[in-house]
Amino acid sequence: MMLPIYFFNILNINRIELAIIQFAAYSILFTKPIISIYFDKVRSTRKIFLIISSIGTLTSFIFLILYLNILTIFGIFLSINFLCVSVTDIVIDKMIVDYSPDEKTKDRNARYIFLGSMSGAIFPTIISFLIFTDIYSIPTWHLFFLILSFAIIPMIFMNNLLKVPFDSDKKEVDTIDSDIDKKSIMLLCICAFFAYGEKIYDYPLEPWLVNRWGEQYFSLLLLILMIMILLNALGLLIASIISNRYNRKKILEISFFLYGSLMVIAPFTDKITFFIIFGIMQIFSGFLVVNLFSLMVKHSHKKVWLFQLLTSFILLARVLLVPLGTYLSAFVPTELIIATAGVLVLLAIIPTIFIKYKKEQLSMKSEI
Hints:
With about 375 residues, the protein is an all-alpha fold. The protein has helices at about 5-10, 15-25, 30-40, 45-65, 70-100, 105-130, 140-160, 180-195, 205-215, 220-240, 250-265, 270-300, 305-330, 335-345, 350-355.
């Protein structure tokens, strides 16, 4: 939130140049599978790398906000930031895979992870709502970025307190090849890519909303966006509690259909209807991510490299679609970009239909 507005509405940067920088920076995310394989072999250094990556995340963030108006330097520090964040993500992924033995535990872990992400997403919006009176005030923007920098500092201390399993004598048990459903893995990879089709409007959406509503309604827009994030959190919460009782694949197919269809319709409606539809979409988004996450963990068979393979297609969506959306926004109406995202999400239904799914027996000892 906010960075696209700063780039498009305040700096009015060259969007094609930004798209090239984004593609180069987001490509760094493909190092995650390599880092994951290294961590699987060298367990004793995980905690050290986690602390170093936290410090690197803070340092690179400070430098990238100092050079927002110089895209090349911004891209270099954005790449470093993504690399450091990837290390943290992998350690967390390892813990998720290790500690998700059954359906309810998967849902509980998904709930904690995604609600944590929602908290991180809503924080910049709250800060913006509190400090912005003039969207074109450069000192206010500097204050905003400074506050975000300080907000990263607690992550260093939390990562230092995190208990990371690093038993050097413990070897990962290899899953028998016959136990791995290669067809479903391939289909899940395709599904994960299309499921994140919304990444194509990552940068165009917020500037488009500001232009559509007008700068005088910026505070109201921020308030509405906060409500959207809370609705998404509500959807995540409900989905993580009830999804284990039903067929996850069917829930995922229905979520894709409703979410994608509403996304195609939303940009061509009036301003009020748009946010009503987007609010409903956030509920379905919660069901989408929880059940997709659960299927990914289930089919990874406790192998982090396999889980990273699945998530790498989400990374591929970010690497390709975020720059593509930025590039297209230079000459394509944002309404069409949002509708395209809806079509991509609808395409995720096709591979989902052919994924094999067998509902696990619920454990009486599982906690909600």
